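Lecture notes, unit on protein representations.

Consider one protein chain, 217 amino acids long.
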Amino acid sequence: MVIFRGSVPHQLISNSFYKRTVICLDLDDAFSEQLPKLSSLLDFSWIPKDTYCSFSLDPVKYHQLDELCQTLSQELELKLAGWERMSLSCVLQVTVLLQRSIEGREKGHVTTSDSFESKSALVQKCSDYVCSHLGEDLSLKTVAKTFSVSEEYLTRSFKKEMGISFYQYVLLQRVAEGKRMLREAPDVSIADIAYSLGFPSPSHFSRTIKTFTEDTP
């Protein structure tokens, strides 16, 4: 996650392919004059003025932010009744989530970019392995055997460093990829998506999606 003001010159470069979501807020003087009470709710004093703020979100917060970004995108695209209020609501929730993450980082309560880099090699390699093998057997037993560690040690390490269990991490990654495929590949059946992500059945995929998003595929 990278946050900066529009006045800060910037260029983001990645050495590998990645997907990103960009939210740009342009709140001019007219906005403040027309909606003075609402504009006071959009407090950005916590964002550095002359530099940027970069940190990593834990899987749970990442999932929350992903949901908000998707909702915001849909509201801006469809523009159904009340879309302005829903959009503003999403923006407010995003800013609060990020502000709390930054304040928590400063108090040592969340994963920062520095601490993320110092994450144990085991957890880093396992998380990378999971993301690149979502359609394969990712049971705790199989992955522990792959990295020559005990199941107890692997799940304990994940819980300590990621804040969630290994099983939950696998489900979160599969759900995130499933949501991406549902959005970007509308011609692919739910069954094909489910099986390609390692779910035993379409119904299991649907139940898992609903557990994390409170909605069906």
